[in-house]
Amino acid sequence: MGNTILITEDFGHYLKILSQYFTGEGFTVYSASTGQETIRLAERHLPDCFLLDYNLGGQETIEPACLFIRSHPRLKSAPILILSGEHEQAERCYASCQADNFIPKGRPLAEIGAAVRRSLRRAGAASGVIAGGDLALDVVSRLILRPGHPAIELPREQFAFFSLLLEHSPRFVTEDELCRRVSCPGAEPMSRKALNMLAYRLRLKLGPRLARRVKNSRASG
After folding, report:
1. Count of alpha carbons within 13 Å of 124, Cβ hemisphere only?
2. Is the pTM of this model over 0.90?
3. Among 22, 42, 48, 130, whose Cα sits 20 to 30 Å from the Cα of 8?
4. Domains recognised in the chain with CATH numbers
């Protein structure tokens, strides 16, 4: 998962808050307050992710910068998350900015950070690799990769289960969501009994050390 982010916000105090938060979370942060500055920094640094304020003062919006990002051969797949204090702009942001996510201003910093990490994981999955912490998942071969350890190959349903947990970590994923998304495309959602059996088989396959990371809502293995 990439760790460089370009944040654009015309309100200096909020830009400082966002920059300090993501720096503290281990990101390399580039900051801008205008669309032109966003384009200049994007072209120079090729960040992994963009967190952009939609309205930049006066009549300026972030749309031209988003079009530049989406047309750049090395940036076009980078996640774009749009911040705005006007909820009614969400549809416009998805359509005109080709954004991956819309976040209303005022949301907790931890929630914004989680949205950025989810978007980066999805971008990694689209390229064939999902990364999280000390693990990487190869989507094509369904392998769990850990530095210094043998790779673990998982069956399709077990891999879907584990990759979903890793994608949303540290958020708890509900049983209903797991049942719906682990099932084969077009099939009926998996039953909870089948899901519990799948979790049991996954833990056996992972071995004692990794199995402890698969927890239920009571934080037990």
Report:
1. 21
2. no
3. 130
4. 4-125 (3.40.50.2300), 128-211 (1.10.10.10)
